[in-house]
Amino acid sequence: MLFNSLHFLVFFPVVVGLYFGLAPRWRGPLLLLASYYFYMSWRAEYALLLLATTLLDYYSGYRMSQLPTKRERKPYLYLSLASNLGTLFVFKYFNFFRDAVGQLAEALHLPTGAGPVMGLLLPVGVSFYTFQSVGYIIDVYQGRLEGERNFGRFALFVAFFPQLVAGPIERGGHMLPQFRRTHAFDYARVVSGLRLMAWGLFKKVVVADRLALLVNPVFNNPRQHHEGPILLLATLAFTFQIYGDFSGYTDMARGAARVLGFDFNLNFRQPYLSASVPEFWRRWHISLSSWFRDYVYIPLGGSRVAPARAYANLLAVFLISGLWHGANWTFLVWGGLHGVYLVLSTWARPLRERLAQATGLARRPALRRAVGVAVTFGLVAYAWIFFRANTLADALYISQHLASGWSSLSTRRVGALLLDFSQHYRPELAVAFFSVFIMLMVEYLGRNRSPQAWVAAQPFVVRWAGYAGLVLLILYLGIFNSTSFIYFQF
């Protein structure tokens, strides 16, 4: 069930009405049933996988909470990790590693038998709820969190429908106490949640789905009459498409939870205003980057080890992060690129300081930050080529041809190229580019607080004129003709 579907438009008000209309003791069971119905609307049988994960991790966490030492808890930790990571491997990575081993054996002229090909459909959201459950298990093992005794409450923590399929990846210490509380109907909170959902829907329908009209034809067939200007334009369009798509989903998830009385952690904080790649990862997909920091990077030693080892830890974390996004070499290269960016950023910090002193940028912090934002944006946008490309060969073709076709460039030629390319989509693309401007302006003006809080603080006339324009744009572009969210494939 998509947030941007007629199905959800009916489902959500019914759930909200029942939730606040029922006695508090029935609200948890209602949300659990609603969450499983939400998930089963994609493919009912995969709810069994979700239930199996929930049962095993509930049992492991419950047993560990009864044992006083880590040594005694360790078997249950290993049981949970083997089950969760094994599930991910079978459904998501088996065929990738099978092919990679076969290609390596062929390159080394070694005999290899063709192993079985797994024809399983990737369960939607499996990477998200698996990581959420693994985080809970590790927290219980470390003694940071008491194992949940109420099975229904733990099952709701794993399956809560607003964030089940694409996050944010929540922590047990943040969400489980909220499921224990009674949430009264609060008009201001409901309005705030609906406003956040509408803003997310705008990002998805008006920004991301319109930009896809430019992005998809280019990236799906980059060799067909696409020169450097069009390849660069499509790359920039995808840079904002994925932000509008994923942060739009997150806003809708956080808004839906807020209507019901629950608080999700912030997952995006104006990431394209980052002045360095490390800062970008403190602002982009915050729940995932913090998950890797706490459960992978720090256990590997983090930055408390020798510099060479710390650099290796960074590279390892980002290669794993790339692989988490998908079983494809393109994602592995994307993760590796960001790992290299972070290593170079850390290594070159003293050099950057000396350069800033020598050029006078150290005395002009605003200009220095502007330069950092521009450089960071360029590095991130370039890496998105590998994230979006269908194959590594396509990604390399695009990156190698970004500079082609510029020598004969003229205003008339650019216009002709765009006119020829977008002959069927001119109005939608114009709306897309204008909506990107709106999105960036609202988020920039609200950079010191949430964009929704900034909007709420505006005069009544300005605020409601903005609401009307947003709703009209969404309705004009067809709310129910939108595509699935990009991160649903992960």
List key phrases describing it.
3 domains; mainly alpha; 0% strand; 20 helices; 490 residues
Description:
This protein has 490 residues and is mainly α. It has 3 domains: 6-109 and 120-180, no CATH class; 187-264 and 410-489, no CATH class; 281-390, no CATH class. Helix content is 71%, strand content 0%. It has 20 helices and no strands. The chain has helices at residues 6-21, 24-40, 46-65, 70-107, 126-142, 151-159, 172-180, 187-220, 228-260, 277-283, 286-297, 307-325, 329-347, 349-359, 365-388, 392-401, 411-421, 426-445, 451-456, 460-477. Helix 4 runs antiparallel to helix 5. The longest helix has 38 residues, at 70-107. It is globular. The two termini are 16 Å apart. The model has no long low-confidence stretch (mean pLDDT 87).
SS class: mainly alpha
Q: How does the major sheet shape up?
A: none
What is the helix content?
over 70%
Question: Given the C-alpha coordinates, what overall shape results?
Answer: globular
> What's the domain count?
3
Q: Strand tally, please?
A: 0
